[in-house]
Each structure stands twice: as structure tokens, then as C-alpha cells.
Write a structure and sequence with these properties.
76% helix; 70 residues
Length: 70
């Protein structure tokens, strides 16, 4: 199960039940859904940054290897 599918299922469950605490919507809006959306957004951003870091590390290791064989 991917992270996106798991988050979609979790968000659907929270929405059907009316909140993570089971008491329904609070007076100021749906705070639980805002929190879940923020977690999803920041986790996908984190994954993107990790992929970019891995790419940079591969390039650095390649350059080091090239320098060793000059």
C-alpha cells in the first residue's frame, strides 16, 4: 500500500466519522482534516527532497570515482 492510498483511506475514515476524536466537527472548522492535509503535503515534499539528495550523492560519488581514475 502506498503512502497516498493510505492517506486517502485515513482521510476518508476521519471525514466519515466526523473527526479523529469521534466527537464530530468542532466550532472552528475541520481542524483534523487540515492537519492530515498538512502532514500529507509535508511528507511528499520530504520524499521529493530525499530523492534529490540521493541524486546529488550519486553525482558526487561519480565525480569522486572519475577523479580517482585520472
Amino acid at each position: 500500500m502506498t503512502v497516498d492510498v493510505a492517506m486517502d483511506e485515513l482521510m476518508g475514515t476521519v471525514q466519515r466519522e466526523g473527526g479523529a476524536d469521534g466527537r464530530g466537527r468542532r466550532g472552528g472548522g475541520d481542524v483534523d482534516m487540515q492537519i492530515l492535509r498538512n502532514v500529507r503535503r509535508t511528507s511528499s515534499h520530504s520524499c521529493t527532497l530525499m530523492d534529490q539528495l540521493k541524486t546529488l550523492k550519486i553525482k558526487v560519488y561519480g565525480l569522486e570515482n572519475d577523479l580517482r581514475h585520472l
